[in-house]
Amino acid sequence: MQRVLRVAAAAAARLAGAPRWGPAAAATVRWLSGGRESMSYDVVIVGAGPAGLAAAIRLKQLCRAADTDLSVCVLEKGSEVGAHVLSGNVFEPRALDELIPKWRQEDTPIRVPVSSDKFWLLTKNKAWTLPSPFDNKGNYVISLSQLVRWMATKAEELGVEVYPGFAASEILYDENQIVTGVATNDVGIAKDGSKRETFQPGRMTLLAEGCRGSLSEKIIRNHKLRESGQGQHQTYALGIKEVWEIKEEKHKPGSVVHTVGWPLDLNTYGGSFIYHLDNRQLSIGLVVALNYRNPFMSPYDEFQKFKQHPAVRKILEGGTVLQYGARTLNEGGFQSIPNPVFPGGAIIGCSAGFLNVPKIKGTHTAMKSGMLAAEASFKTLVEGSSMELYWENLKKSWIWEELYKARNYRPAFEYGFIPGMALSAVERYIFKGKAPFTLKHGRPDHEATDMASLHSPIQYPKPDGQISFDVPTSLYRSSTNHEHDQPPHLRLRDPTVPERVNLPLYAGPESRYCPARVYEYVSDEKGDQKLHINAQNCLHCKACDIKDPKQNIEWTVPEGGGGPGYTVM
Amino acid sequence: MKILVAVKRVVDYAVKVRVRPDRTGVETASVKMSMNPFCEIAVEEALRLREAGAAAEVVAATVGPAQSADTLRTALAMGADRAVHVLHDPDPQRPLLPLAVAKILRAVALQEKAGLVILGKQAIDDDCNQTGQMLAGLLNWPQGTFASKVILDKEKATVEREVDGGIETICLDLPAVITTDLRLNQPRYATLPNIMKAKSKVIKKVTPEDLNVDIRSDMEVLEVTEPPKRKAGVILSSVDELLDKLKNEARVL
């Protein structure tokens, strides 16, 4: 079928003399062949997470206020909204208060205020209480997956079209290299590569793919957005999380606990969280910075080890795990913010990277960035201004101020755990964010891995099936699944590198850091070890894209509708 | 000729199901729901029959709460022309049983003047495998259940059925009821443009009262529990011990 629906053609013709960074003056028409279709919108948003939905909602609010309309479409690769959303989450409602002030009067899934805030230093057998560096008064313990579902209903009420199950796989450009939309890879791609695509032209394209978004990374590289932004590379951490249903007597709604120390060593930055929701549910997870050195470390097994700590296992005993999942997050903060504007659109949320590391919160800043981009998009599409406005307003907003104050905490740990804690204390209690210096990040995460010869393999305890579990059991709880008959979405830029470099020099770290055990080295008929990629297990966390020593693994988006099925994460 | 396809909104096949803490039923809140896989096959078959020219219109119908409209939208996005939504809020203690559903579908089939009704053979939540058969009985129409092939011509349907002994081929006079089995077809995916178009297709909303159907359930669910955890095996040391255990503990000798 060759049909082009041009919803915004008339509106596009209205726009005269688009400035250099504005949208194309006319929605580009593509002649399609072989079953491709095209539907154009004024704004196409990739990703139905907090940033994408906040942007969509804000756009429609601005339209109503100005008595005009823009067609807004949100594409989401998960089978439903929230299926790929995973976060701690202690939610700061600052941005939501600005976006939907009436949320407190509705049946918003924000029900559990933080009731206590504890900070423990763990050693192998004990938990030492330290003064809590956090201030969570006025914040809530939530499931971000649930919140995002609610935001999607709000967006649809305002007329936003949300399409879960559709993955944006390609950026579309016109002759002038201006982004004119995205192409989605329709389901039904056979392993031989024959596929059908739908083109999704948009006058404005906002990328809200979350941390290490596949399209966002391409755009950042091609347009050199890091260099024209704050300059530093992005640094990351991998968060592995479970939601448990625990015994009534152990459950304290709103209780927030963070830990540092055991099981991570002094050279590895990271910590854990234990948040009590309602309905006897509990979020528990371990976050490990991806600039860890020991290639034999397995964050998944560290998490299982952590749960066996006496102070932790007594909370979990008698409970059942409801869901399991993993996702990488940004730790670069202020120093790593790229210029988020490109010709034809902008990057919002964690795809750019606005997470406040010492607070361990990024949802509120992601939402605010979506709102700022929406405001700039509105002005660009309706009043003819430019998206540079988004970058300028970002620098004048509370996101900037907040991230500036938080900028030195994480880089301080480059000097080690003890100096890091000491510097953090100084930063918090003495400088209070006004230090006259800005620390830099160390080497990029993928370069930080030591050679395997410098370390020895770690013997992790066997899972007991009650508190700790093996990977297949955990994967089952993530409801992850992908259509069998599709080409693997994890691509090796050079297929010889795993056997030539990863295995001999680094002992195949991908077989250990992947929380879904996608990567396995198995012996072939000749007895040589070969890399086997079980792409179906993928949790879409992006750890491999970040941590592969030669940056040889490229995470590309599989058919929409696959991947994990988070509902309470 | 009009084909009526009945679909059901069930817990997605990939979800790990668990029992609610209050033991009134299975946890369905914040759990992924989708169209019953056998119903998808039914919709696909109806669409193929229409595309082959054997039918003029495909109407999808469902019985369920407001959210069941999503399931109808999926059917419309796959290609159904219209939909009928019989609104019914589920009560976990008195669930809607196949007989009640069959009575409702009978009323809809007569109202729509359907020439053929296609259903999935069973729903993956209750595994009843009764609705199609009861519907045929109430309508007094012939039935072809567990269909693995359907050939339609003006007045007859030739159905190949998957039965325990192999494949049975029967010939049904229309109007008839067919229930689908797994190997009948591979349902198509709804493409993005079709999902958009489905938004403007009509869904007629009715209630069981409008159809003059009494859906009072004679069955009350008292409790739902998980099956008991499988106990570990015991290694025995002698045949005498085995005999003793079989006689005194298992009581099978």
UniProtKB/TrEMBL annotation, chain A:
Q: Which Enzyme Commission number(s) are on file for it? A: 1.5.5.1
Note on how the cofactor is bound: Binds 1 [4Fe-4S] cluster.
- Swiss-Prot/TrEMBL keywords: Electron transport, FAD, Flavoprotein, Iron, Iron-sulfur, Membrane, Metal-binding, Mitochondrion, Mitochondrion inner membrane, Oxidoreductase, Transit peptide, Transport, Ubiquinone
* Localization annotation: Mitochondrion inner membrane
InterPro entries the UniProt entry points to: ETF-QO, ETF-QO/FixC_UQ-bd, ETF-QO/FixX_C, FAD/NAD-bd_sf
Q: Which residue numbers delimit the ETF-QO/FixC ubiquinone-binding domain?
A: 236-329
The coenzyme or cofactor needed here is:
[4Fe-4S] cluster; FAD
> What reaction gets catalysed by this protein?
a ubiquinone + reduced [electron-transfer flavoprotein] = a ubiquinol + oxidized [electron-transfer flavoprotein] + H(+)
Pfam families the record matches: ETFQO_UQ-bd (PF21162), Fer4_ETF_QO (PF05187), NAD_binding_8 (PF13450)
Coiled-coil regions listed: none
GO CC annotations? mitochondrial inner membrane
Superkingdom, taxonomy of origin: Eukaryota
Q: Carries keyword Kinase?
A: no
Q: Which GO terms describe its molecular function?
A: 4 iron, 4 sulfur cluster binding; electron-transferring-flavoprotein dehydrogenase activity; metal ion binding
Q: Which residue numbers delimit the ETF-QO/FixX C-terminal domain?
A: 465-567
Q: What is the predominant subcellular site recorded for this chain?
A: mitochondrion
Task: Tell whether Iron is among the UniProt keywords.
Answer: yes
- Which family is annotated? Belongs to the ETF-QO/FixC family.
Q: What does this protein do?
A: Accepts electrons from ETF and reduces ubiquinone.
Protein name stated in the entry: Electron transfer flavoprotein-ubiquinone oxidoreductase
Native organism:
Leersia perrieri
TrEMBL record, chain B:
Keyword annotations for this protein, in alphabetical order, are: Electron transport, FAD, Flavoprotein, Mitochondrion, Transport
Q: Name one GO biological process term.
A: fatty acid beta-oxidation using acyl-CoA dehydrogenase
A family per Pfam: ETF
Keyword Mitochondrion found: yes
According to the UniProt entry, its GO molecular function terms are: electron transfer activity
Reported cofactor(s): FAD
| Record domain Electron transfer flavoprotein alpha/beta-subunit N-terminal: where | 23-215
Localization terms from the record: Mitochondrion matrix
**What GO cellular component is one of the record's annotations?**
mitochondrial matrix
Record PANTHER family: ELECTRON TRANSFER FLAVOPROTEIN BETA-SUBUNIT, ELECTRON TRANSFER FLAVOPROTEIN SUBUNIT BETA
Q: How does it assemble?
A: Heterodimer of an alpha and a beta subunit.
Q: Which family does it belong to?
A: Belongs to the ETF beta-subunit/FixA family.
Protein's job: The electron transfer flavoprotein serves as a specific electron acceptor for several dehydrogenases, including five acyl-CoA dehydrogenases, glutaryl-CoA and sarcosine dehydrogenase. It transfers the electrons to the main mitochondrial respiratory chain via ETF-ubiquinone oxidoreductase (ETF dehydrogenase).
What protein am I looking at?
Answer: Electron transfer flavoprotein subunit beta
